[in-house]
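Q: Sequence in, structure out?
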Amino acid sequence: MSRFLFFPLVPYHANTFIPVIKQLKSHEAWIIYSDHLRHYGRGKIISSQIQIIANENNILSLPYTPQILAREKPDALIVMNDWGGWPKRLVEDAKCMNIPTIGHIEGAQDYLDTHLDHGYPGKRRFPYNKVDYVFLLGEYDEQYFELQNTKITGSPRFDSFQNQNSKSVKPEIKQVGINCNFSYGLYADVAKQWVMDIVETTDSLSVKHQISQHIGDVTDLSKFNLYHNGIYDMINESTVFVSRFSTAIIEALLLGCPVIYYNPHKEMQPTFLDAIGGFPTPTTKSELKNALQDVLENPEKWLRRAEKFLDFHVAFKDGNSAKIFAKELIEIAKKKTTFDSYFPIRSHVKYIIELITRKFK
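A: Exactly. Output:
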């Protein structure tokens, strides 16, 4: 029997891992949480949302401490972020202890941090370069990891979409779903104009719209028609879904809603620039209007055209991703050799500082 530690950084990471853990029936698997240590997005987190998700699914959860690897001695550590926060630190500690590390790419990723070329602050992350194994969403991602051990697993979070996508065309009342996801300051300076372009265009076409705002987006949308339920609910109520760079583009297509990638600010992430004919990619307001008219009148045509894009970007979209994911983990755990003793002094110091400074936040 193998032992697995899953370390989600944010709540939706936990929702991705839950189906995998349920597949590891004859093995031991726990979730580590650290979201009680820091605030996330616009709200303040008092307790761990990840712990709540784990409890709701009857999965044991453990608070992060620097001693957790030495105490639990897992056969593998699984993360979805190896470039920041406590997961990054734990990956580094695990490698010093000879514990296999796995990073899962569950959605659209700007591997090259192309926003830096537009002058936005930050530094290159080199995502998924620290882990031993990279579990890829689809064939598209392979080009970025020629020198690493990779497995194509799809995303377990999308497994349930197979049952949700029961209709290929959305409701008779035409409605545009708008995804405002200018998270953590990236392109935030153009966010308001981006939203206004779409709202004004839908109004000119006499089509209703709703706006979903990402938790990490701080754009002032108080005067707009905000949607207050989950983004998947909005997608299911929409005839077409409009977004900037976001995994939600893939999610909408999987849920049977045609999409438009609106990019007037010239984002350079390659993922959606080459739509393989699967959706319009307007860069001006006039192009956006033409695209909306086309997709609203021909949703079935655009969904058919999107299949090629989905096949290239999302593996195991038949609902078997969690099963494949778990199988690969078990094989990796079999390769684990000796557990090396190591005292993570840097992690202890950082952890103590974090506990002290948190009291004053």
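The chain is about 35% helix and 15% strand.
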